[in-house]
Amino acid sequence: MGKIEEGYSLEQHVEGQSRHLDAPELGLDLAREMEELRQGAPFWTNGHSAKTLVKYTDLRVVLMAFKSGARLGQHGTVGQISLQVLAGRVRLVLEGQQFELSKGGLFALGSSVPHDVEAIEESAVLLTIAWPQVGVASHP
């Protein structure tokens, strides 16, 4: 399977076909996607790598792979997020608290909550971001 082009391309080439990241239906093999991330240069040079799997106007799904000890550093996201650990163990640090998540663990964060992610061991994490829609009332 090919890699997503740099930037914000909505198309990915898959075995001679193209797959649109904003198609109404998308089916993915996460184990295969994780292995491809681990084989890429950013994983080995930066300690982590990420690949956008789904890219709708109000939703993103991003697969991230981390070498042991790699971290993202403190940051926040405009949308609400969930982090699901697919492999390994990660430490999530927010507001002075630490949470350790292992395979199968899920953590949700509200919009703009500052947090840091660090891999305790080689890990894969599925990040889901729900972008706020302009002009749409939120649920109480």
From TrEMBL:
<protein>
    <recommendedName>
        <fullName>Cupin domain-containing protein</fullName>
    </recommendedName>
</protein>
<dbReference type="InterPro" id="IPR014710">
    <property type="entry name" value="RmlC-like_jellyroll"/>
</dbReference>
<dbReference type="InterPro" id="IPR011051">
    <property type="entry name" value="RmlC_Cupin_sf"/>
</dbReference>
